[in-house]
Amino acid sequence: MVQISRRRFLKIGAGTIAAGSALRNAARLTEPARAAAESGVRTVPTFCNVCFWECGAIASVRDGKLWKIEGNPLDPLSHGRLCPRGTGGIGAHFDPDRLRAPLVRTSERGEEKWRAVTWDEALNFVAEKMQKIRNDYGPESFAFFTHSLGGRFLRHTLRAYGVNNIAEPSFAQCRGPRDVGFTLTYGDDVSSPERTDIENAQCIVLIGSHLGENMHNTQVQEFAHAVGRGASIIVADPRFSVAASKAKFYLPIKPGTDIALLLAWMNVIVREDLYDKEYVGKYGFGFDQFAQIIQPYTPEWAYPETGIEPEAIRATAREMARYRPATLVHPGRHSSWYGDDAQRSRAIALLNALLGSWGRKGGLWVPASMSITDYPYPPYPEPRRPAADNPGNRYPFADESVSNGLREATITGRPYPIKGWMVYSTNLMNSLPNQPETIRAIQNLDLLVVVDTIPSEIAGWADVVLPESIYLERHDELHTGPFKQPYIALRQPVVDPPADQKPNWWIAKTLAEKLGLGAYYPWKDIEEYLAWRVKSSGYSYEQLKRDGVILGPKQPIYFEDGAPVTFNTPSKKIEFYSVQLQRAGFDPVPQYTRPDEGPPGSYRLLYGRAPMHSFSRTQTNPLLMDLMSENSIWLNGNEAARLGLKSGDYVRLRNQDGVLSDRVAVKATQRIRPDCVYMVHGFGHTSQGLRSALHKGASDTQLLTRYKVDPLMGGTGLHVNFVTIEPEV
Ligand SMILES: Nc1nc2c(c(=O)[nH]1)N[C@H]1C(S)=C(S)[C@@H](COP(=O)(O)OP(=O)(O)OC[C@H]3O[C@@H](n4cnc5c(=O)[nH]c(N)nc54)[C@H](O)[C@@H]3O)O[C@H]1N2
Ligand SMILES: Nc1nc2c(c(=O)[nH]1)N[C@H]1C(S)=C(S)[C@@H](COP(=O)(O)OP(=O)(O)OC[C@H]3O[C@@H](n4cnc5c(=O)[nH]c(N)nc54)[C@H](O)[C@@H]3O)O[C@H]1N2
Ligand code: SF4
Ligand SMILES: [Mo]
Predict the structure, then answer these.
(1) HSE (CB half, 13 Å, CA atoms) of 105?
(2) What is the per-residue pLDDT across 217-235, written as a single tens digit (0 to 9) for each?
């Protein structure tokens, strides 16, 4: 196994940073206080928005210009260090492709022809159309798609208008299956930031979760330390990921067979009496039935499914048991893979339960949070019809809105027509699978409003585009995370927006006033609102402005230290056997189904993250593009040789439905199995306005025409597409 030193791993951040010129300054960051002391330098604490981890940061302005951003040492998430994306976040302010003024469409939808208008004109147009939809169809026929904290004020305006269809792709396209699988087992999900005690774990099991490429800051920092202190790492991934290069055991699993591996691991742990008997006896429900059901699933049974040798399965199961309860089987985050994902996540939850690691040091802690007083608003109107995304409760365990369900309702007009969408900070063309379906839904709308910072693909389909100021130019809603230590964080403007961009709170408030909903905004400006909430909760707004973060009182986070032991399941215990699943017609203990094979000669398309980009949102950031300007397609070296391809050759991918990708460079490598290919998500932009990223690399989403819906909760399994490779001529 290739060993890469801890030093090199830690350099992931710093090494990539060294490529960009402004980032080079950032790499030499000194104490914030010292920066402030330099002449002409002003520092402002805030928090990052390049992804949703929301790390506390300190931005510096030199001679009136945004200069650099670094971690806020007081912040429990960043510990004073940002990831490469966070450090390069200042590039978003200088992005040459930014939206500069509100736009109204002047030709067919999707043709990207616009007229720049004033805010007054744009919001009058939106308000008028919204009133018409409310009069003609009722307010439930207007839907809100959003992702992130920035959508809170628009949500407030829309709920005041009567909207009850509100969905985020972070549920059905991301963490939903995981959260449902854990909730079915423990009565609670793993929250975000995840309650993973990587810091104290002695054995860490990563099933897919590609920490180090997935750059969620706190986890990556803790993981680097865990590697440094010699924690035992087990990685199951069809691709030899960065995390795999740190592992004591690397299992190159056949894609889609994780449930087989998980069952075999649990089989060994139960059969060899290696589980935490006291914990299971005290907190478990239905263990005997569970043990009976998993009896046939031996490592020998799992071997032909997973491709992992029985001895490797046994050795890794024993390794996990050896360190329990300080063994963390990471729950993952992006879990919408194969359509049976809530059950796969439930199997991960059960494996943790056998090891006694839920609620234990080195496993999964119990989050602590701080209560911040809500602003006293008038009540929202009661919706007259239930939400449209999950009619008849067909996904019985969906506990958040299903974005693809809302898209489907917009296409079919059932259970009732959806005639307007507002889309805030989510590029639905890239985050929902099957782009033609998204377009079909859009074609049924009377109004599509997109609030974005750049002319994203979804903005290209809008009737009205509203340009938001970026996170370094605005206030936002307060951020309070459930975490190891509770905290509140403040986002505040560092510099002015370069043109006529406005913050979300202003857009939401002004739109509410135009809709006759001014009573829902009794405050004059955002600082009055923020200060009221902070002060009413017993904290100092002045301190929050100065420090960026206020820490709440420490609370016990492990069962052994007095953290509350509550399982909000029907049995009030950890459900090894789930009666509620059985009653709903599902497997009470997860079962394995063999994944469908692709057409002969095709490869399963897998995708993931690169340390220097977030989704499809950072490709026009000049600093981050400087670090990585296009993606590549990972192809097993032997397969590449067979196809006569070498690294750097350009190819196109054709999927099982005939869709052809943009050109993309081959990365021929032994670091991936021969039955799959892999690419970084977010590239291959097609919006004409994204000039600096247009057609650079290929888009995974374009190729994901198929998806498999999770019957428990509506998540879209996205690893079910296959591609062939065509040389670029
Ligand atoms: N740099 C960066 N970091 C990010 C983000 C970002 O945009 N950029 N986004 C954040 C968000 S919202 C999320 S949800 C997370 C996503 O990050 P993760 O939750 O870590 O993503 P996954 O999709 O679980 O993991 C991708 C890995 O799974 C492997 N894999 C694919 N198929 C299988 C399989 O069948 N079995 C197994 N065992 N492994 C498989 C792939 O080879 C790849 O290494 O990243 C977060 N961090
Ligand atoms: N094919 C494919 N689909 C996926 C994934 C994948 O890996 N591959 N990942 C899935 C996962 S894990 C997730 S969490 C989702 C993520 O899905 P999304 O949240 O939709 O992620 P992005 O594609 O980055 O879209 C974010 C949009 O918000 C805009 N934006 C950025 N900052 C701001 C801001 O401050 N204000 C406003 N108004 N807009 C802003 C960006 O320009 C961009 O257009 O996608 C899911 N879908
Ligand atoms: S993980 Fe990186 S991009 Fe995400 S909030 Fe933290 S510093 Fe920003
Ligand atoms: Mo995600």
Answers:
(1) 20
(2) 999 999 999 999 999 999 9
Residue 6 has pLDDT above 70, yes or no: no
Q: What is the mean pLDDT of the chain?
A: 95
Token pair for 537? 């909760």
Question: How far is CA 637 from each of CA 130, 239, 307, 604, 670, rounded to the nearest angstrom?
Answer: 55, 12, 19, 16, 5
Domains and CATH numbers, the chain: 103-172+373-469+500-546 (3.40.50.740), 187-367+558-583 (3.40.228.10), 603-727 (2.40.40.20)
- CA 78 to ligand 3 centroid distance, Å: 8
Q: Which residues lie closer than 8 Å to 376 by C-beta, 6 or more apart?
A: none
Considering the entire predicted model, what is its pTM?
0.96
Ligand 1 binding pocket mutation candidate from 52, 220, 234, 334 (most atoms within 8 A of CB): 334
Closest-CA residue to 324 (of 484, 192, 229, 205): 205
Q: Which ligand is nearest to the CA of 333?
A: 1
* Mean pLDDT, range 515-522, rounded to an integer: 98
- Residues 6+ away with beta carbon under 8 Å from 128: none
What is the number of helices (H) and of strands (E) in the chain? 26, 27
Each residue's pLDDT tens digit, 50-79:
999 999 999 999 999 999 999 999 999 999
Q: What is the pLDDT of residue 435?
A: 98
Would you say the CB of residue 60 lies under 6 angstroms from ligand 2? no
Report pLDDT for 37.
55
DSSP notation for 4-62: --HHHHHHHHHHHHTTSHHHHHHHT---HHHHHHSTTEEEEEEE--SSTT--EEEEEEE
Cβ proximity of 438 and 446 under 8 Å? no
CB-based pocket (< 6 A), ligand 1: 51, 85, 174, 207-210, 214-216, 236-239, 241, 253, 255-256, 258, 332-334, 337, 606, 608-611, 613-615, 678, 719
Check whether 18 has a pLDDT greater than 60.
Answer: no
pLDDT tens-digit series, residues 611-645: 999 999 999 999 999 999 999 999 999 999 999 99
**Ligand 4 centroid, distance to 534 Cα (angstroms):** 29
- Nearest atom in ligand 3 to 614's CA: 3
- Ligand 2 pocket, mutate which of 173, 400, 607 (most atoms under 8 A from CB): 173
Output the CA 697–ligand 3 centroid distance in Å: 23
Q: Are 248 and 319 in contact (CB under 8 A)?
A: yes
Q: What is the pLDDT of residue 38?
A: 55
**H-helix segments, 355-457:** 403-412, 428-431, 435-443
